[in-house]
Amino acid sequence: MAGNWKMNLDHVQATHLVQKLDWTLRDGKHDFAAVEVAVLPPFTDIRSVQTLVDGDRLHLKFGAQDLSAHEAGAFTGEISGQFLARLGCTYVVVGHSERREYHHESDAVVAAKLAAAYRDGLTPIFCVGEGLAVRKEGRQVEYVLAQVEAGLADVTPAQVASIVIAYEPIWAIGTGEVATPADAQEVCGAVRTRLAELYDEPTAAGIRILYGGSVKSGNVAAIMAEADVDGALVGGASIDPVEFAAICRYQSHVGAHSSSR
Ligand code: PGA
Hints:
With 261 residues, the protein is of the alpha/beta class.
């Protein structure tokens, strides 16, 4: 379960959130081995989160929301994967729809950023997803598979085994408009099938595929019940530690909220 804070919470607020999240999870006897929990704060928070996680030996993982495609040099405002690795980041989000849309990141840029993440030993959370127009035309599967193939063009079999892929239909992000569990399964299942074709079955079976888009404690269990959904990339609900902890502990309320989406 990964919490994408987006551009929310400064480094002081980040410390408070991580402490409360950890405390809430421990209080609920969260099984971190069964359900990994990661936070993805803004760049300026990462050092504070690292200090807390290392100092208090927390089981939380953390990462960044983006990285530069470049290694180093004259790229004003950019953050390299090396910097993130030095701060202890495990994960980095690549190709989030907000980056694709507002920063014009093409599939080629996304592929270069995936390569940069691997170069620096980071695990990419590679985001794909269709907009409303594509969904209305019923072309979501072909659209998402094209994104997957373009992004993975240069990713080797050894690298792909560790990748995390997040299917986030754009029309469901931050809108309260959650895809149905069947919608999530349709695309996540198609992604896994294509991974098996591009690589091999065991590799595809081992890759974690997340769903993202208005995930909350009330709808997560039904989505997680789908065969090809292995986790969630959570935006808005991840900046509330009690709500995010409840999402992480979805196994304790399976069935309890199955009717509320
Ligand atoms: P949301 O965002 O949960 O607020 O819809 C998900 C995301 O953009 O990763």
